[in-house]
Amino acid sequence: DTIIDLNLLYLYLGMDHQLAGKTEDMVYCYKMINPKTLINSLNVNEFGGNPSNQAFRMMAEAMYGLTKTGHSEEAKKIVNSFKLPMNRSSLYAYAAVSASVEKKEGKLVQQFIDSAKIEMDRAENVTAGQPNRPLVAYALAMQSPEKNAAEISRLIKNIPQKSPAFRNTCRSYAFNGKLFAAVDNIPPSISANDQADFLGN
C-alpha cells in the first residue's frame, strides 16, 4: 500500500490554527505529524535548489506551539527528527524569537535559548555556514540587546553575511521600545538602500 506523507498538510493547518488562536485544533494537527518522515518536507526546493525555508519555519512553529501548550514530549519528537545539532539549535532559537514576540514569560524564552546554545556547542567539525549562529544572536537580542551585547557580537563576528544579523539587532532594540538605540546601532557608511532596509526593519 502507498502511504501518503501528510506532514506538510498538518504543518500548514497547525500553523493556521496557531495564528488564529485555536489551541486545541493546533495541537491536534501537530500531533498528527509523523516525526519519522518529517525531514522529507524539506525536499520541497526553493530558490537555487535549496531546502524549503518555509517548511523549516513551520516545523519550528510546530515545536514552539507544542511546547508553549505543555506538550513538550511531542515537541521533542520534532526536534529529534533532525540529526544535526546545527538544525536543532536553529529550531530552538527560532522558538525563542517567537516566544519573545508573543511576550511570553522570560523562563520559556530562556529555556529555548539555553537549548539552542547546548545544541550549538554539540556541533563538531563545522566547515559549512552556520545559520544557527545569527538566529541564536537574534534570540538573545530579542531577549535583551543590551545585556547580551557581548555574546551577540561574538556569535556574529565571523559569519559571512553580517548585515541581516545587524538588522535583527536593530530590530530587537525597536521591539523593546528603544528606537534611538535601534537607529544608533545601524552600521555607518552603508548605502542608501541598506539604510532604508535597516529603518524599515
Descriptive report:
The model has no long low-confidence stretch (mean pLDDT 89). It contains 11 helices and no strands. Helix 1 crosses helix 3 (53-68), helix 3 crosses helix 5 and helix 5 (85-101) packs antiparallel against helix 6. The chain is mainly alpha-helical and 201 residues long.
Could you tell me the strand content as a percent range? under 5%
- Describe the largest sheet: none
How far the N terminus sits from the C terminus, by CA atoms, comes to 50 Å
Provide the succession of SSEs: HHHHHHHHHHH
| Secondary structure tally, helices | 11
Low-confidence stretches: none
Radius of gyration: 18 Å
Task: Specify the overall morphology.
Answer: globular
Q: Name the average pLDDT.
A: 89
Helix and strand content put the structural class at mainly alpha
Give the proportion of residues in helices: 55-70%
Q: Give the tally of β-strands.
A: 0
Feature tags:
0% strand, mainly alpha, globular, 201 residues
Protein topology:
Elements: H1 7-19, H2 23-31, H3 53-68, H4 72-80, H5 85-101, H6 106-122, H7 132-143, H8 149-156, H9 162-175, H10 179-184, H11 192-200
Helix pairs in contact: 1-2, 1-3, 3-4, 3-5, 5-6, 5-7, 6-7, 7-8, 7-9
